[in-house]
């Protein structure tokens, strides 16, 4: 497995359901629900919902967490890199929720009024370098990103284009197969 390259375990973009960045917030919620139902029933192999722009280029992915963050866009105002640890970030957000950020201060029914007018492109985050791996990279580069960054999938790039995703579940399956192939110690 040491010589294996990302391209051998990646899945092409066509394997994933997709939605336009011009879709509304509510369309995204409904599509996520449909994708999850198809996955749960065994009709679909994926539940990752990719987002494409007006040119058809993949610009991100949607998850239920993106829905929650989209409902409260003030999370985007938090300067995460300035925090030394996750617990420091949580403590700061907790302390400043009532004072500065006023997160979730508007009643949910008021936030929900915007779901029919807000477009996905207004809140979807572009993939960052720590969420991408080159198509010809060796698997240890993907291992590193999965372990250190705790991603469940990575975008695979060929040059500047996103050409697929590599899922941690597929990588783990390959590791499990390699472990089972090991001879028993004597």
Which segments are poorly predicted (pLDDT under 50) over 5 or more consecutive residues?
none
Q: Based on DSSP secondary structure assignment, what is the total number of beta strands?
A: 7
Considering the protein shown, what is the CATH homologous superfamily?
Answer: CBS-domain
| Largest sheet data | 4 strands, mixed
Strand proportion: 15-25%
CATH topology name:
CBS-domain
Radius of gyration: 19 Å
Features:
single chain, 186 residues, alpha/beta, CBS-domain, four-stranded mixed sheet, 37% helix
Notes on the protein architecture:
The chain has 186 residues and is an alpha/beta fold. It has one domain: CBS-domain (Roll), CATH 3.10.580.10. The chain contains 6 helices and 7 strands, in the order ββαββαααβαββα. A 4-stranded mixed β-sheet has the order 1-7-6-5. A 3-stranded mixed β-sheet has the order 2-3-4. The radius of gyration is 19 Å and the shape is elongated. The two termini are 24 Å apart. The model has no long low-confidence stretch (mean pLDDT 81).
């Amino acid at each position: 497995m040491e010589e294996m390259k990302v391209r051998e375990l990646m899945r092409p973009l066509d394997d994933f359901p997709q939605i336009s960045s011009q879709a509304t917030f509510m369309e995204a919620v409904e599509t996520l629900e449909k994708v999850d139902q198809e996955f749960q029933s065994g009709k679909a192999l994926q539940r990752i919902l990719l987002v494409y722009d007006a040119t058809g280029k993949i610009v991100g992915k949607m998850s239920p967490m993106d829905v929650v963050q989209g409902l409260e866009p003030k999370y985007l105002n938090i300067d995460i890199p300035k925090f030394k640890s996750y617990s420091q970030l949580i403590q700061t957000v907790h302390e400043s929720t009532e004072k500065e950020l006023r997160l979730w201060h508007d009643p949910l029914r008021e936030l929900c009024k915007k779901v029919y007018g807000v477009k996905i492109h207004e809140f979807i985050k572009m993939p960052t370098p720590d969420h991408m791996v080159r198509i010809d990279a060796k698997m240890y580069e993907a291992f590193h990103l999965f372990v250190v960054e705790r991603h469940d999938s990575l975008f695979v790039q060929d040059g500047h284009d996103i050409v697929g995703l590599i899922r941690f579940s597929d990588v783990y399956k390959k590791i499990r197969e390699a472990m089972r192939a090991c001879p028993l110690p004597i």
